[in-house]
Amino acid sequence: KKEKEKEKEKKKITMKRLLLCLVIAWSVVAEMTDQQRLEDFYKATFGEGWNIATNWDDESVSICQWYGVYCDNDGNTEQLILNKNNLQGSLPDNIWADWDSLKNFSVAENFIGGSIPNEVGQTTNLIELILSSNHFNGHITNALTQLTRLSVLGLSKLSLDGSIPTEIGNM
């Protein structure tokens, strides 16, 4: 009987440790900074090949001084505008969640491919999302309907297929 009690206690401790690890892992993910998001974006879109990438590779400079990044008074990224800048690759899916400060994301007339990440729908304060004239493919994700503040959606000159989700017309 004592062996069963010991075994039960070991399982409880193991479960508590597992739960603690999950909580720690979640908090690390939840604390992604604007700088980390922008660095991931830079890597995913082959930033070293951009036409202009002033300060993007200088960690000693505030992100508010990086080319195409516009910040609010608290130093949070409010706009990312990198049109006609030779961006390639694809949009990373890990940068969008809880990016509450971002209001305008514009990367028109570049060479970004792949699908539009579903996670874009988690950037709920977006007012403008301009992806026009790139190489995106696939379908228009229903996740865009989560962007309830969106007033400008630029999806022209893309290789998208399927139909436009009817919910987008209700935004």
From TrEMBL:
Signal among keywords: yes
**Keyword Signal attached:** yes
Q: What is this protein called?
A: Leucine-rich repeat-containing N-terminal plant-type domain-containing protein
Q: Name one Pfam family in it.
A: LRRNT_2
Residue ranges annotated for the Leucine-rich repeat-containing N-terminal plant-type domain, each copy included? 54-72
Q: Which UniProt keywords apply?
A: Signal
